[in-house]
Design brief:
Helices cover 46% and strands 15% of the residues. The chain has 454 residues and is of the alpha/beta class. It has three domains: 3-132, Orthogonal Bundle (N-utilizing Substance Protein B Homolog, Chain A), CATH 1.10.940.10; 180-236, Alpha-Beta Plaits (2-Layer Sandwich), CATH 3.30.70.1170; 239-447, Rossmann fold, CATH 3.40.50. The strands form two sheets. Strands 5, 6, 7, 8, 9, 10, 11, 12 and 13 form a nine-stranded mixed sheet that branches. A four-stranded antiparallel sheet has the order 2-3-1-4, covered by helices on one side. Helix 15 links the parallel strand 6 and strand 7 (309-313). The longest helix has 20 residues, at 354-373. The mean pLDDT is 94.
Length: 454
């Protein structure tokens, strides 16, 4: 592995911290500008995501072997050491000596040569003593926090909701990379047609498991270079998110229904529903709060070719007079803590605070209120999140139902046997990696006919 890959990883992590970017955004931005070959891209991705994923444990190791606490290190030095320790402890096939040598080179290139000896000494000590390191256990919350780099306060909250053993399994399943899941651009493209196109391009694929048309793609480094992607034969969307479209399809709406997607970016649910409805089967209004989010939706709508989607820049937490009781279905995929997608955004767990969870709860409540006002009598509200936090899921829904007697919960029934274990109390409740899917929650609420908003 060349120094370029390690240097790229450090630069990505530096920018993530400096500009307060999510790690996937910092990674994508760097790879868009710097053309790394396939092996370098693979290495950089593993190193960046792995370092963030294990950050609390890496700092614990550094604090054991460094005279300078990790919290007081220069930022560049801290990232060089973190990535170095991650390679030594968690990446096979890499010589420890090479890790140390390349770390020293990076420090010198960054005009910090006076610290080269220090960096070299810390990493060589870790390499020499790695076999004697006592790895943390998993029998207490404190041990789980260290073993899985999960903030202790968050573990305490989740244990109160799910119990210790399910919490341990959640922590374990939140490590590693998530599979790349796609769906054919229904009804324009069927599953067999998509599989044939992927075969022609030499793209390995396998069934998703939960949905009959979902596929996992393996070893795809540059999605946008695939002809099948550019031609709009498929859309990237996790199976858990695809279930929202299947919930809408299960309603058998008939006629020409209006579906309002109030938090639509990047457009996966809107385009899925539009495809399931068909160009003459209904209309989808895809909304989001900012121009750049609408731009992402627009790119997917144009590539996939859905004339029955209209885009609007509006705030999901606001009730608009023109929306009042106008929609047959409202999709509210609310902003959330994201605990179901830690494999994709491992830095989420460090960004969350008790105060931020409270703020999210207030925003979710406002979005539910505004969304409910837009549903016709006899229409439906589909509330979803990509978190496993009960306060944002069941608790939020039950509070809404208590305050809005015109709505009732409608149990979700889908014709896929593989989903049966994840239908609890009428909700869809997925934990990460079950079936390869992300953690996800879906509730279906129906406004009674003849009942109008107060």
């Amino acid at each position: 592995m060349t120094e370029n890959g390690r240097m790229a990883a450090v630069r990505i992590l530096e920018r993530m911290e400096k500009e307060d970017l999510y790690v996937n955004r910092a990674m994508d931005d760097h790879l868009h500008v710097h053309d790394l070959d396939r092996e370098d891209r693979k290495f950089v991705s593993r190193l960046v995501y792995g370092t963030v994923e294990r950050m609390l444990y890496l700092d614990h190791v550094l604090d054991r072997y460094s005279k300078v606490p990790s919290a007081k290190m220069k930022k560049v030095v801290r990232w060089v050491l973190r990535t170095g320790v991650y390679q030594i402890l968690f990446m096979d096939g890499i010589r420890d000596a090479a890790v140390c040598d390349e770390a020293v080179k990076i420090i010198k290139k960054r005009k910090m040569g006076a610290l080269a000896g220090y960096v070299n000494a810390v990493l060589r000590t870790v390499a020499r003593e790695k076999d004697s390191l006592v790895h943390p256990g998993t029998e207490s919350l404190e041990e789980l926090s260290l073993a899985f780099s999960m903030p202790l306060w968050l573990l305490e909250k989740l244990q109160g909701q799910m119990g210790f053993e399910p919490l341990k399994e959640f922590c374990l399943q939140s490590l590693g990379s998530a599979p790349l899941c796609v769906r054919p651009n229904l009804p324009k493209v069927g599953l067999k047609e998509l599989e044939a196109a992927l075969d022609r391009e030499g793209v390995a694929h396998r069934p998703g498991g939960l949905l009959p048309y979902a596929l996992f793609l393996d070893k795809v480094e540059a999605l946008a270079k695939l002809e099948s992607f550019r031609k709009g034969l498929f859309q990237v969307q996790d199976q858990s998110s695809q279930l929202v479209g299947e919930v809408v399809r299960s309603l058998e709406l008939g006629g020409s229904p209006l579906v309002l997607d109030v938090c639509a970016a990047p457009g996966g649910k809107s385009t899925h529903v539009a495809g399931l409805l068909g160009p003459s089967g209904g209309r989808v209004v895809a909304r989001d709060i900012s121009p750049w989010k609408l731009e992402r939706i627009g790119e997917n709508v144009e590539r996939l070719g859905h004339p029955n989607i209209r885009m609007e820049e509006k705030d999901a937490s606001r009730a608009y007079g023109e929306d009042r009781e106008s929609a047959d279905v409202v999709l509210a995929d609310a902003p959330c803590s994201g605990l179901g997608i830690l494999r994709r955004k491992p830095d989420i767990k460090y960004r969350l605070t008790p105060d931020s969870l409270e703020s999210l709860g207030r925003l979710q409540k406002e979005i539910l209120e505004a969304s409910g006002a837009a549903v016709k009598p006899g229409g439906f509200l589909v509330y979803s999140t990509c978190t496993v936090n009960r306060e944002e899921n069941e608790d939020q829904v039950m509070r809404f139902l208590e305050e809005h007697k015109e709505f009732k919960q409608r149990p979700i029934h889908l014709p896929f046997g593989a989903l049966d274990p994840f239908l609890e109390e009428g909700f869809v409740k997925l934990m990460p990696k079950e079936g390869g899917a992300d953690g996800f929650f879906i509730a279906l609420l129906e406004k009674e006919k003849g009942q109008r908003n107060g």
